[in-house]
Amino acid sequence: MSVIIHLTDLHFGAGRKNQISFSDVKRHFIEYINKLTDNPIIVVSGDITYQAMQIGYSAAHDFFEDVIAKTEIDPIRFIFCPGNHDIDPDLSFNQFTAFCYSIRKDKQFDFSLKPSVSIVLDDIYFIVSNSSQHRNKDYGLVDLDRLKAEIETLPHAKQRRIAIQHHHLLPIIEADTSVIRNAYHYLNILDANDISAILHGHQHFNVGFPIGANKMRIFGGASFGFATEGVVNSFNVYHVEAAGMAVERIGLSIDGPVAGHTGFIRMGERLVV
Prior knowledge:
There is one protein chain. Helix content is 23%, strand content 28%. It has 273 residues and is of the alpha/beta class. The strands form two sheets. Strands 1, 2, 3, 10, 11, 12 and 13 form a seven-stranded mixed beta sheet that branches. A six-stranded mixed beta sheet has the order 4-5-6-7-9-8, with helices on one face. A hairpin with a 2-residue loop joins β11 and β12. The two termini are 15 Å apart. About 2% of the residues have low confidence.
């Protein structure tokens, strides 16, 4: 079994807009990881910083370096995807690229080279697309031709395939115009290529639903630090087996003990899909 921890919308550097103290979060997060029996894969689906602030990347680097040191997770088990807040003022992704290199010590997630990249971990094929590649902060867009070219490089074996991008695919707020503009064609490509799950962020809401002929599962993660009214800061955990996936939403209890426990706790039942 593989375990995937899905973080999104951390927004390091947001100052008072951050609802939680990352020093507290880090301590509880390390405790949570060290209680797992499996060496997890860590997916971060965008908005590592806030408004492309360099100080946010510095804080994120210190956060993840400490997590790595105290959990002994191999840095190559981190998967990073840029979000709209990770677009530099000069419309590049140079700071994001430098941050990824500082953690992984490679150029696996240098999206200046191509807008979609793939990586294999634990016999799972991850296809990571930069939905901010068009460099417009207001909405998402995927380069479909480059996505198809990247998928064609994958072996035809039936290993599980998971897609990752920052922006969401369906709006849950009536006035939302920030969705992926070509989501219909994007979903058709993923559905035709045996993608079993899609992980994203951006909405700051936790969502999960099936879509497509193959019943792909779309999982959106809530924020991991940014203040959003009515939303609890949390992350998703996916327990992946050959037969399927089990999904847990893990929230941070910081206001007081819940059942004698303060830290990260499961919110609701473990969902088997």
